[in-house]
User: Which sequence fits this backbone?
């Protein structure tokens, strides 16, 4: 369980990081907490020539208020995200979902941006970011650009980030009044990845559901929105949540693996979506 | 004047915190991997990625030229000297043991088998150089399914055998004279229920990976190993490698768990000794977690075909057991005997007049199996407790009433069972009544009915496990009758130091059990010395020269009694000294609270410490008495110990997702006289966690090519405290009558008892859905498929959902399991 040899670089600014990543070339790898990467290296399933450790890039850590959004530094640890007052106030869905990730040891080392960049569809934060409509801020040799969450996840472990880019922060839009949320995770043991997870954001208006945004974890090669449920819920009353949730697996192509076969995952998506929406609206 | 009782407070029965916890929990201790000796080199093992293949070429040239590499060895380098990894339990005279090389020579028979070893100056360099070994394999078909493996024409795991069947072991009560012929019971049965149960393969998953360090010294070696069996390892290394036994020293420093997983002599230990001797350099090897999960032996993995017969009124008349037991690719130290231990336990607490047990040991191209917590008894307990529930359903009886009707009543002890064992004591009624009250059985039954009536999406199930087990391994003559390669005694010595402190030497080598605490409590009481004044010496064949080590819940029930007997000898030797110093007759002296007094004349007394000092000085001793009150004892138990208890489990099943949640778990265990209730509690809690894990969480899964797909803790889902309920644990105390402490083993009871309690509860919850069995682990997907498939639906292969629920009963209901 010893990784193959690699060069190790530890930049202290985003600018240094971008140049280090560029210098490392296509066999470089970014270390952003290492809770997925280090096991892969120890199992010698990957042989990067250079690791660029972002652990000392102070400007990528912490959460700040930026008017209509809160900005979460990519290197903010899960633990810090969970306990951040801005996250609690403006994006409690993130805090709740983050609290379900693995165990306290992992949450103290793993980072918000690291998990999103890794883009494991079984990870909990992608569905949450999709539902919240987050913007991903990436820096590269050409400067900074913003990527919508809906454009960020391309495939299994693959994102819109170019090889020479680094995710520096994630902008989480502040939701207005009337929104509530819930993350419903289903796994076999406490520290395990999600078999299926559902992130539900619901805006209520005059007792009925005005708008819903549903993100699904591990229901395909990327996190996905349950669009059919969202449209079925728009304008619906709480009594029709179960019927709307029946569409949760529409168009999904979940994996079959040791934790569950695809048809079971599709069933779970329906059940958990119903529960997540009902929990979000407090029923 | 009032007499003051100056005797120290009794240590036995005191819930002391464990002496050893501070260093074990913090890790500031002597784990094997923490050790080093000057000039030590590091080993890395190249392991086969193939389950079954011939090695067509192997070229280590490149690896030898890598930085820091001192040597690379392959099977060819050691084939003439490595012998075979030893198996000490030829369970039948014609058992086929095809041999087990430590380093594969021509063929590999499981994924993870060692094929080469790199020796380098650092561990990292050794690991890096593994990639420089060029090896080619010619694949052979894997042998994965036991039913297939025993068919004519099946692919042979080992080319030097005629069949994949290593042995067939048979016991039949009619032939043995312990009961009636099974064929009569089967023929005359009013009711017959048959089931096939599957004991899935489990991984012991001890916390400290296996590690070994070897320092050569002339003709011999000193071996430090994370092993449960330093004494047996010494003998086996001597026999296997032809080393002079007196030149072999084995040390088990602090060992971080085992659960049976550190019982066998391992290929890695043998390879490390061979390399150290070949190079005449000290070496160390520590496995990675991945290697540990893949290549350290696995447990369970049996197919159990069980038939029970009864009269219509619920009197059990016969039990017929046929096992296929997966040995994996090779026979390890006690692997063949593990399922045979179950032979004595299928009849469990019941008066069953006729009994047959047939076990076939089968080779497959999987990791070898050997002992895992309970070793044969959990499998037996599961099968009988599951089929008692199925029989109750068939008879329309309450499952507890069926048990009561058939179990041995407390006034019937000692009771000789149909398997030929004599249970010395027990009180199943008392433990059961207590457990039923603690869990609130009747209220839960009422709630279950309400949930059924209201079609609640969360259904409740209640499960029973009334169990006993045989432990305290073991009477040597019994082991002899089972062809085991050693005895079952244990050794102890007590050394009285001049300042009154006490050293206790034990041959029971702990790996987390709490020996240092419990044994000190026993000695403190026996000799009347302070608990803090007793030090335990263990785990080093140079200082604790004789022993049979720790497994089978034997340390207290066997090793503890050896200590008691040694203490009695110390007292008798000290009595001579005290009589001399008090100028009294030995017969007039009474000994209590560590002091000898002349009966009836208070005032003058000689403490055991005074006697120790007197023999140290040796100035004034009776004639002909040696200047020592040290003593040793070797104790061979006359019988096993038979802890028992009643475990009750209430589960809530979310029928929408299939998730099982344990709502309440109550166990009332009877482990005889408690020495340290806190240690008992710890053993029960850990045991429950492991038994529940078999029911709900753990399974070693292989893919079609014979690769372990649950090779990390991501896929091999060990539960943590977050996944388990708060246990309600209580005890009844029915002392064992076969040892002077009245103790019974406790190390495995929780694991043995809990698995069927949980599965019975799940099946109980699901009966309204037509479910009459569920495969373990009862994952949410399996439960969901059982519910929605009317109990007969099975998932496809390749996931842990494979197998779903299915069995057959006498009326042909249910599917058949493939």
Assistant:
């Amino acid at each position: 369980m010893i990784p193959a040899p690699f060069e190790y670089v530890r930049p202290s600014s985003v600018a240094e990081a971008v140049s280090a990543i560029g210098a490392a070339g296509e066999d470089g790898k970014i270390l952003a907490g290492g809770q997925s990467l280090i096991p892969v290296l120890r199992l010698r399933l990957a042989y990067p020539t250079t690791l660029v450790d972002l652990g000392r890039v102070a400007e990528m850590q912490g959460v700040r208020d930026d008017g209509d959004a809160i900005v979460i530094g990519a290197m903010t640890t899960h633990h810090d995200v969970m306990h951040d007052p801005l996250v609690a106030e403006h994006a409690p869905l993130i805090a709740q979902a983050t609290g379900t990730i693995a165990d306290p040891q992992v949450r103290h080392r793993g980072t918000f941006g690291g998990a999103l960049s890794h883009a494991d569809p079984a990870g909990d934060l992608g569905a949450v970011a999709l539902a919240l409509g987050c913007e991903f801020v990436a820096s590269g040799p050409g400067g900074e650009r913003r990527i919508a969450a809906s454009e960020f996840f391309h495939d299994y472990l693959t994102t819109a980030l170019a090889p020479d880019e680094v995710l520096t922060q994630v902008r989480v839009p502040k939701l207005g009044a009337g929104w509530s949320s819930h993350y419903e995770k289903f796994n076999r043991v406490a520290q395990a990845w999600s078999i299926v997870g559902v992130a539900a954001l619901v805006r209520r208006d005059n007792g009925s559901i005005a708008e819903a945004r549903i993100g699904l974890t591990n229901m395909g090669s990327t996190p996905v929105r349950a669009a059919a449920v969202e449209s079925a819920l728009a304008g619906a009353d709480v009594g029709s949540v179960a019927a709307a949730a029946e569409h949760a697996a529409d168009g999904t192509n979940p994996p079959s693996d040791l934790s569950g076969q695809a048809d079971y995952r599709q069933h779970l998506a329906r059940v958990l979506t119903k529960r997540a929406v009902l929990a979000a609206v407090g029923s | 004047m009032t007499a003051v009782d100056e005797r120290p407070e009794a240590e036995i029965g005191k819930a002391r915190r464990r002496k050893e916890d501070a260093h074990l929990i913090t890790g500031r201790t002597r784990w094997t991997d923490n050790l080093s000796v000057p000039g030590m080199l590091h080993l890395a093992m190249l392991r086969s990625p193939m389950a079954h293949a011939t090695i067509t070429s192997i070229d280590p040239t490149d690896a030898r030229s890598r930085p820091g590499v001192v040597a690379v060895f392959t099977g060819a380098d050691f084939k003439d000297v490595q012998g075979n990894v030893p198996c000490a339990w030829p369970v039948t005279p014609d058992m086929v043991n095809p041999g087990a090389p430590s380093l594969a020579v021509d063929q590999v028979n499981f994924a993870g088998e060692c094929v080469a070893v790199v020796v380098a100056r650092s561990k990292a360099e050794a690991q890096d150089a593994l990639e420089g070994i060029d090896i080619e394999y010619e694949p052979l078909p894997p042998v994965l399914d036991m039913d297939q493996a025993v068919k004519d024409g099946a692919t042979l795991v080992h080319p030097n055998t005629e069949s994949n069947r290593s042995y067939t072991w048979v016991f039949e009560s009619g032939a043995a004279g312990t009961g009636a012929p099974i064929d009569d019971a089967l023929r005359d049965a009013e009711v017959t229920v048959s089931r096939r149960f599957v004991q899935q393969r489990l991984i012991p998953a001890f916390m400290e990976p296996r590690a070994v360090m070897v320092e050569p010294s002339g003709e011999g070696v000193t071996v430090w190993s994370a092993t449960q069996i330093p004494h047996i390892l010494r003998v086996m290394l001597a026999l296997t490698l032809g080393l002079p036994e007196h030149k072999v020293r084995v040390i088990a420093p602090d060992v971080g768990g085992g659960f049976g997983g550190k019982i066998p002599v391992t290929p890695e230990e043998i390879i490390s000794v061979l390399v150290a001797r070949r190079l005449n350099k000290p070496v160390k090897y520590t496995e990675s977690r991945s290697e540990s999960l893949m290549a350290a032996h696995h447990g369970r993995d049996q197919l159990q075909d069980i038939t029970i017969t009864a009269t219509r009124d619920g009197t059990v008349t016969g039990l017929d057991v046929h096992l296929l037991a997966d040995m994996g690719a090779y026979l390890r130290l006690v692997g063949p005997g593990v399922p045979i231990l179950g032979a004595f336990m299928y009849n469990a607490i019941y008066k069953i007049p006729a009994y047959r047990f047939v076990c076939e040991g089968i080779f497959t191209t999987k990791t070898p199996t050997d002992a895992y917590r309970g070793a044969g008894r959990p499998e037996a307990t599961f099968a009988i407790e599951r089929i008692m529930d199925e029989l109750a359903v068939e008879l329309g009886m309450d499952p507890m009433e069926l048990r009561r009707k058939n179990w041995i009543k407390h006034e019937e002890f000692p009771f000789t069972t149909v398997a030929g064992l004599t249970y010395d004591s027990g009180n199943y009624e008392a433990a059961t009544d207590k457990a039923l009250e603690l869990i609130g059985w009747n209220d839960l039954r009422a709630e279950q009915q309400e949930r059924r009536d209201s079609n609640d999406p969360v259904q409740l199930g209640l499960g029973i496990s009334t169990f006993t087990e045989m432990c305290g391994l073991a009477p040597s003559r019994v082991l002899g009758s089972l062809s085991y390669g050693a005895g079952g005694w244990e050794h102890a010595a007590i050394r009285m130091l001049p300042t009154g402190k006490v050293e206790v030497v034990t041959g029971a080598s702990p790996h987390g059990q709490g020996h240092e605490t419990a044994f000190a409590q026993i000695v403190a009481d026996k000799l009347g010395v302070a608990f803090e004044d007793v030090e335990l010496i263990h785990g080093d064949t140079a200082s604790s020269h004789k022993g049979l080590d720790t497994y089978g819940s034997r340390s207290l029930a066997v090793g503890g009694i050896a200590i008691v007997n040694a203490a009695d000898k110390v007292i008798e030797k000290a009595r001579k000294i005290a009589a001399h110093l008090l100028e009294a007759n030995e017969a007039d002296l009474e000994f209590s609270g560590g002091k000898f007094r002349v009966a009836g004349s208070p005032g003058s007394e000689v403490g055991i410490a005074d006697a120790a000092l007197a023999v140290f000085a040796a100035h004034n001793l009776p004639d002909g008495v040696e200047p020592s009150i040290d003593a040793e004892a070797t104790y061979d138990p006359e019988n096993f110990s038979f802890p028992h208890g009643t475990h009750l489990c209430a589960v809530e099943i979310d029928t929408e997702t299939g998730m099982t949640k344990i709502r309440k778990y109550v166990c009332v265990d009877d482990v005889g006289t408690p020495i340290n209730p806190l240690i008992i509690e710890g053993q029960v809690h850990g045991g429950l966690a492991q038994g529940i894990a078999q029911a709900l969480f753990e399974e070693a899964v292989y893919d079609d090519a014979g690769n372990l797909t649950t090779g990390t803790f991501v896929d091999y889902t060990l539960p943590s405290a977050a996944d388990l309920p708060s246990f309600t644990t209580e005890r009844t105390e029915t002392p064992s009558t076969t040892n002077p402490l009245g103790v019974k083993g406790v190390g495995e009871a929780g694991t043995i008892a809990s698995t069927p309690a949980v599965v019975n509860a799940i099946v109980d919850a699901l009966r309204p859905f037509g479910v009459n069995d569920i495969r373990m682990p009862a994952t949410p997907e399996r439960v969901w498929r059982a519910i929605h498939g009317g109990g007969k639906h099975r998932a496809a292969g390749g996931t842990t959902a494979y197998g779903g629920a299915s069995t057959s009963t006498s009326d042909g209901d249910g599917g058949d399991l493939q």
